[in-house]
């Protein structure tokens, strides 16, 4: 058993971060260099303390796109109301997404992360929060501006672009179902530009020598409207489920072959006036001898002008059902997101009336 790393004083932290950044080889570089314990920068004080695990057999709902549209809409809306997460199946048949996607994109992201360190180095930037997480992430903005494709590593560029197109088709249909589930016309959320602002994040979670001392992604909600997540077969994503009596559990989102994971983000919670829920989720380190790969696409409104306001959709509020949030511009929303400290109040609370 490796000896635990001691806590890091603030002054040394800056030096450690600098050394990590300058190495330009990411967390995978640490693993390649043969670390046998989690370096202090990556240690989370008590990563698994917050809530117990759900009993085995509990899992997020499944929405099947081969169902007649009204039934699929009802299932998606029910899942968005109760869990905020669901598995989506039958998108290959229903939408013509090629069978080899997203597996090809996941494999290409893995291939990039497993290139020799010298070939990866050009792509490491820095993003070091309070306690660093055990992953390397490529982030690509696909909208509202045209993407700068040269920033995507060549070994996964075509696959990332192709997956963005297929995932956007998936996002469109899911937004249609969720609009209908609110009693609105199917294109209501798309018309609010909710498919136009897209960010793709490609995560690679290296095998970890001490999985219980760090996290892949700390508990958080996704800020945008909707997330479409593809994961490989390794697992590690968990969703927080809260019962009616307020007790909560972490539920494993076990990989389901051929399924995508869909989740509601903070903006959709707000636009739906709390009918749909944006729920906490996290990625724990697995003990398997295999690195994990996932690709999340976050759908956000593309219209960002200072005269464009977001908030509860007017059709959903009335004197009996008053708005629970005030209206705001995207620049206000993004400002609140980027200023928020880790562990501070939920993003939606900044806009609550
Ligand atoms: O890797 C995953 O399964 C989830 C990642 C995630 O939650 C995120 O990027 O927001
Ligand atoms: Fe997330």
From TrEMBL:
Q: Which GO terms describe its molecular function?
A: dioxygenase activity; metal ion binding
Q: Which positions carry the signal peptide feature in this UniProt record?
A: none
Task: Enumerate the spans annotated as Fe2OG dioxygenase domain.
Answer: 190-301
Q: Which keywords belong to this entry?
A: Iron, Metal-binding, Oxidoreductase
The answer to whether UniProt assigns keyword Manganese to this entry is no
Does the keyword section mention Nuclease? Answer: no
Q: Check the record and name the InterPro entries matching this protein.
A: DIOX_N (IPR026992), IPNS-like_FE2OG_OXY (IPR044861), IPNS-like_sf (IPR027443), Oxoglu/Fe-dep_dioxygenase_dom (IPR005123)
Show the SUPFAM superfamilies listed in the entry.
Clavaminate synthase-like
**Family under the similarity heading:** Belongs to the iron/ascorbate-dependent oxidoreductase family.
User: Any idea what this protein is called?
Assistant: Fe2OG dioxygenase domain-containing protein
Q: What species is given as this protein's source? A: Digitaria exilis
Mind giving the lineage of the organism this protein is from?
A: Eukaryota, Viridiplantae, Streptophyta, Embryophyta, Tracheophyta
């Amino acid at each position: 058993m490796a000896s635990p790393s001691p806590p890091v004083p603030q002054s040394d932290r800056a030096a450690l971060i600098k050394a990590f950044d300058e190495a330009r080889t990411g967390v995978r570089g640490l693993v390649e260099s043969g670390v046998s314990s989690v370096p202090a920068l990556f240690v989370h004080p008590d990563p698994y303390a917050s809530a117990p695990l759900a009993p085995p057999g509990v899992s997020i709902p499944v929405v099947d796109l081969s169902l007649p549209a009204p039934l699929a809409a009802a299932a998606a809306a029910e899942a968005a109301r109760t869990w905020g997460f669901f598995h989506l199946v039958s998108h290959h048949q229903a939408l013509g997404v090629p069978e080899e996607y997203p597996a090809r994109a996941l494999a290409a992201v893995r291939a990039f992360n497993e290139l020799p360190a010298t070939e990866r180095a050009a792509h490491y930037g820095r993003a070091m929060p309070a306690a660093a997480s055990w992953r390397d992430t490529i982030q690509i903005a696909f909208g509202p501006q045209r993407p700068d494709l040269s920033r995507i590593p060549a070994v996964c560029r075509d696959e990332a672009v192709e997956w963005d197109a297929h995932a956007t088709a998936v996002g469109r249909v899911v937004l249609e179902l969720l609009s209908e589930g609110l009693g609105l016309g199917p294109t209501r959320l798309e018309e609010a530009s909710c498919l136009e602002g897209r960010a793709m994040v490609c995560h690679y979670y290296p095998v970890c020598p001490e999985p219980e001392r760090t996290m892949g992604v700390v508990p958080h909600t996704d800020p945008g409207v909707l997330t479409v997540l593809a994961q490989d077969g390794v697992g590690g994503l968990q969703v927080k489920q809260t019962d009616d009596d307020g007790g909560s559990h972490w539920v494993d989102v076990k990989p389901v072959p051929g399924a995508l994971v869909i989740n509601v983000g903070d903006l959709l919670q707000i636009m739906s006036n709390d009918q749909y829920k944006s729920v906490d989720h996290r990625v724990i380190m697995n003990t398997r001898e295999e690195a994990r790969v996932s690709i999340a696409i976050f759908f956000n409104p593309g219209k960002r002008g200072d005269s464009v306001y977001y908030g509860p959709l007017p059709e959903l509020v009335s004197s009996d059902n008053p708005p629970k949030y005030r209206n705001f511009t995207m620049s206000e929303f993004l400002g609140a997101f980027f200023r928020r400290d880790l562990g501070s109040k939920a993003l939606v609370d900044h806009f609550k009336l």
